[in-house]
TrEMBL record:
GO biological process: tRNA wobble uridine modification
InterPro entries listed in its UniProt record: Elp5, P-loop_NTPase
Keyword Transport tagged: no
Keyword Ribonucleoprotein found: no
UniProt KW keywords: Cytoplasm, Nucleus, tRNA processing
Species per Swiss-Prot/TrEMBL record: Cucurbitaria berberidis CBS 394.84
Classification via CDD domains: Elp5
Gene Ontology CC terms, in alphabetical order: cytosol; elongator holoenzyme complex; nucleus
Similarity comment text for this entry: Belongs to the ELP5 family.
Protein name as annotated: Elongator complex protein 5
Amino acid sequence: MSRVLNIRTNASPFTLILDDLNQRAIPLIGELVRRALSRNVNVVVVSFEATRFHPAVRNVSAYGDQSGDQILQDIRKAMDDAKESLVIVDSLYELSNTNNVDVGALLNLVAMEFASTLVGIYHQDMVPSQDAQNEYAPQPLELFKYTATTVITCKSFAHVLATKAAKQRSLAEPTHGLLQGAEGIVQCLDANDHRGIVLEAEFRRKSGRPESETYFLRTARQSDYHMPISGLPFGTLKQEFVTLLDQVPAYGNQEVIGLINAEANDIESTFNLGLTDKQKQAREGVVLPYFDAQKGEGGEGGRILYDMGAEDDFDEEEDEI
């Protein structure tokens, strides 16, 4: 993950980022841009939604009636004089459905011709359009997942904590946003947690074998970077602060346990699983069956003791057997 964030050569030629209204990819994209500019990497943003950019970022405006060929030409022009570039598309849905840009041609241009990195964002809460001419064609998202060398899914930290609390108590996982199925709800409470963002990453090796891991990227601080040198807008990174999710104290200890206890206290039950002191004393005074045989006072080992009654029929032949 550190190599992907720092735009290392051949770390991930095409990174697909999946987000939704409950957790936008803006914090992750901001960190990618900051680290790329700190290493003097040319950053090109193909914008369908964004309107504000850092002065060092080159913007290719794609909204409107521009054709796919014109967008590719603008990207090529923005990369011509740079040794290494980072190309970010802020809406792959618009790129493929509205402007009809061939993602394969875009990937060949960025990764093959210019040996650079392509990052694309796909909003999962966008309803895919149906192609009437070729209804058997795969959806664009499936093609993006197949082509990408790294797939990162963004999730809200608060929602991940709530999901873990439910699992600890063997409850159904909570749903958020559109998955709730509630009319009028598109974004849940605690969406876009300000503490950081959870990244579920899948890395595709050259052999085709995938490797998955979940990370936590907290909000960057000024102390995380060195002072910028002359000519660069940002200083280099001092120490990596993206960590595995399991190593985050809030995920493994206090906050999750607090959520579990809070939900357990709200449960109303018709019976009590605990015992009072009087009930414990009564339980200890109960004599269990065959207790004498267990202590060895009236039996031999585990032999069952039985006293015949007047109504019992004694059969000598069965007793001999």
